[in-house]
Amino acid sequence: MPRIKILNEFSYRQGKEIVFRKYPHLVAEINRILANAEIPKKSKVSQERGRKGQLVWSGKDFNRPLRTSFKLAGWRKKRIELSEKNFVEIDLCKEKVGISFQFGKYSFVDTDFIKFEIFYLRKELDVGVEILPTRALRSEMYSGPPDFDQVIARIKARGEISPVPLWIVGANVFG
User: What gap in Å lies between CA 173 and CA 7, rounded to an integer?
Assistant: First the structure.
């Protein structure tokens, strides 16, 4: 069964340093969960030009086992009410660390960063962790997911406009 390993890291506003210093037990837990999550073998048949008929991974192949594994380790949803009918929610939080992973659609990475910022500004979060596929892994997935290098290039192009510390990791699959 394929397993996940962190290959790339980027620290935005000291995010990696904060999580490693204040929450080393959660860093160890994140690495353990990634290494032990049971990722299924590729099962989606690509319909894309140039890859038609090839087996690829879909975002669901990663999202379901990762979400389940983090929840079994005690990571929970956290919600902030913005108004009577509006709220923002992070899927995985423990202590003051929020996690999101994007193996699905590229556009949701920016949504994750906005959510992290709202929680950070309201003192509900010290650091956000974004887990993304590496470029190599993305090349084995259906089209749509972001990759680590794309996201980091966009962050660098924007400059430091967000105050929230982030530890952004690029993950690949082995086995």
Answer: 10
Model pLDDT for residues 91-109, shown as the tens digit of each residue:
899 999 999 998 876 678 8
Report residue 148: phi and psi, to 5°.
Answer: -50, -50
What is the pTM (predicted TM-score) of this model? Answer: 0.92
- Structural domain range at position 163: 3-174
φ/ψ of 56, rounded to 5, equals -135, 165
DSSP letter for 175, please: -
What sign for the dihedral angle of Cα 141, 146, 152, 154? positive
Residue 38, CA distances (Å) to 10, 30, 32, 111 in order? 25, 14, 12, 27
Number of compact structural domains in the chain: 1
Nearest to 67 by CA among 31, 35, 99, 110: 99
